[in-house]
Amino acid sequence: MKSISKKKNKSISYSKWGYIFLIPFFTIYILFSFIPLVSTFYYSFFENYMTGLTQIGPNFVGLENYKTILFESDLPKFALNTFIIWILGFIPQIIISLTIAIWFTSARLKLKFTGFFKTVIYMPNLIMAAAFSMLFWALFSDIGPVNNLLVALGYEPFSFMQSISGNRGLIALMNFLMWFGNTTILLMAAVMGIDNSILEAAQIDGANAWKTFWYVTIPSIKPILVYVFLTSLIGGIQMFDVPQILTNGAGGPNRTSMTMIMYLNRHLFSKNYGLAGALSVILLIVTAILSFIVYRNLTEREEK
Amino acid sequence: MNKFKRIIALMLVMIMGVTFVACGNDTKDVATPPVSDQKDAGDISQSEPEDKAGKVLNIWGWNNEFQGLYETYFEDAGLLPNDIEVKFTIVPNDDNAYQNALDEALLNQETASDDDKIDLFLIEADYALKYVESDYTLDIMKDVGLTDADIAGQYKYTQEIVTDSKGAIKGTSWQATPGLFAYRRSIAKDVLGTDDPVKVQEALSTWDKFYDVAKMSSTKGYKMLSGYDDSYRTFSNNVSSPWVDSNSTIVLDDNTVKWIEQSKEFTDKGYNNKSSLWDDQWAADQGPGGKVFGFFYSTWGINFTLLGNALETPLPDGITATSDPDVFKEATEGNGIFGDYGVVEGPQNYYWGGSWLCGATGSDNLELVQEIMRTMTCDADTLITITKDTQDFTNNIEAMDSLAADDNFASAFLGGQNHIKLFAESAKGIDMSNISPYDQGLNEEIQTAFRDYFNGTVDYDTALNNFYTAALEKYPNLKVSN
Amino acid sequence: MDLRKANRILCYIVLILLSILCLFSFYLLIVNSTRAHSQIQKGFSFTIGGFFNANLKNVLDNDELPVINGIINSFIVSSASAILATYFSVLTAFSIHTYDFKFKRIFFTFIMMIMMVPNQVSALGFMSWMGKLDLMDSLIPLFLPSIASPIVFYFMLAYMQSNLPKAMVEAARIDGASEFRIFNQMVLPIMKPAIAVQAIFTFVSAWNNYFIPTLIIRSAEKKTLPILIAQLRSADYLKFDMGQVYMLIFLAIIPIIIIYIILSKYIVRGVAVGSVKE
Fold first, then answer.
1. Which of A21, A231, B27, B43 is 20 to 30 Å from the Cα of C29, by its Cα?
2. Are B222 and B331 members of one domain?
3. Rounded Cα distance, A237 and C271, in Å
4. ipTM of this complex prediction, to 2 decimal places
């Protein structure tokens, strides 16, 4: 982002083009997203929901909705659930994606059939989350093939759907399977974008594979790495359809797999714009802070 | 480079094409109402309300069930006036999408153009009162024009479900869905020494006796029920007061508490198989390998779901007992546990399922609405034909009683029993005066919350708290008693 | 030498295991589309059932289920989303990357902020707002908003920062090219790999989107595939048939696999081209 702060007198005459090229984005954003969003924020200060077909409110209640969400709900618990499930999926995802992205691009390994592998690993993402969850549900049910296998191997059957770790583990596994291909493609594009001469120079200097990876590859792909991390974090905070369908909206045993957006979704049942709006604002602030920290940390280290 | 440019150019042309087509459609939509207005204005002056009737009758539902019946028994029967087009709008149930869409449309009913106004919509029992208690639904007698004589033949409980607090009936159904207890004859013989429905009913006529049979079954290595929520509806249909009282406070009825106690005890003592309705364990328990004494099932479930689950090899596609009796007989003989089920009324009367038709306020086609309601839900001849064609149990006491007396309706699947007879009896005894507009959410949430209690994840108080929390999320206007 | 060989074998083993894991779900989908409803209900099996033709016939003969229309609608929405999202995100990123103007930082921060807003947050507001704009039951709200895709924009910007030196833009200006020409004829080709990658991502997520379409679309002839699948799943007991559900999921996945395989070749090649830099 250094380029932003740089100012050149020379380009002043072109600056109007900067505005012109932003017009489509902002017009569409304001028209389709910003207006509904502003009304969401506005209503977070009101008591405003439907009971049956009758509208209650809007009655101005100040910060009451925020108080309810922050101090009287289980939001901290749902935030923790979301974080645990996200990190369970993200750690293997980033490790495996980075590893195979390096393998695919490595000139030393010269792997064959990489076209096939590259094509296949993204494919789980093509299946609708709903269909994917249905399949996993059937696979890991009490009388599903996984339990049959456990019994055949002489173990006790394990009720995945009634166990906290079973539920969370399955959601994380599904998230991993659906997204590691996506991450690999992104990282691969980044790694291939590295100037070959830099890598060659490092090798000539006698750097081993690990050193090349750590001191050349990682810094070079940092923008994409930050992108992957940020989008995964945001995707994690917005995690919804996989746990929703796998747990049938209930959030697993004692709501231990209920994510923040699943909780938000519960308020949409009564069209509770007030509480849902407050929850959204809180989520937005939390995400913004987290992203800011991540962004700052990762980009600052680059400058050292 | 050039190729890429060409692709981009092609893409842009496509966008423009798409936008153009989409816009074209839109202008067409906008243009239609004035055309029809002109037609109306041209015919007769607009002051006479009858002539303002829209030319499109809009029916909303969450699946095609009624659409199929309507097309066969109304449209194909030549009952639809030539100048009216019937348009079905189907929004699936997932994520509450149907009710969200329906609510939005009903709230905008006043400003919608005549051809977009909803005329008829379908609802389910668990949320019926949400619509029935609102001004968006028409009184089928006063507003739509059905008469006492028209609906006299219907089962009373199907009317109770759609009766508002002032006593107005605001919906009508073509089906009745009384429930029964379907038991395995072979297991009954082993446990009770008999598979005679009369004697089995005798042994299961109260919940205490039901419990005794569960205990006896257990010693012989059988489970009484498959899962936690098998018996839920039997208890919840027989509550002594609605879910919510006049102060908007949630009331946990004694009968609901009884369900919790029974399910917990059954689970702890191994009298059930810890399944949930519709899951694979539940379905497998109904099949040849099952060791479960019986299942609570209503009309529609027996000849479709239970029968399908009981077979070892599935029926050839499209074959039912009525569509091709010979093929059906051949395919089912000696297949799985076909013929090993029997049905009894069980400890308490209950119903499960059903759809109702409601007239929407603002409808501009009331005459046709009335005609559809009368033919599809009141006319004994139509209803008896539906039952004969589809084996569905329909909402006409006289018609069902006549089938009950007809020995041709004996079911080979049920070992020769005439189940219509039992259903017809059971349906008359259902009392649904204690429903509330909140049944859908509260029934769902209590089963979800207590599943954790039954399988030992949480204790009773936590489960109850979880239930209250979930209930208040769905219905913020409710209160919890201290 | 041996070590390298061993390394390579290890790589292959890991890749093959991952591939099996990935393809397994497709196998299960196919198996389920060949089984009858009651077979699926009672649990899982790895063997093909004999109901493929019956399920296929039931899905295609279902008058209330406009499958072909659904495929066309899904295709229109997904390709328009992919094209609009990528083209305009590159344009937006180009603006932020290349030009210096007064409120640039504010615009950039704003876009980064809205990237974090979950879709569900404003869903109900979106629905009633579309009603006011008279865009209910239209495909437009399903693809036009993708012109403003903050996440795609962010990716394009990141890619641009490492692949589009400002000097190139200035050189083109000296050659007398207009800003639009620079964008369309120089920047877009450079961004080709990034565009291909994001086009696939956007296409897939639009293809599988259920949440927004179900709020907007009402008439049968405008429904997209995920709505049709949900509709089959909420069928009444007489018609409820998991065999059909899996068959439709299977049918829905074929076009997207074909498109993906076509585009994926392009990605692999495109990425390679992008890496050769001046």
1. A231
2. yes
3. 30
4. 0.87
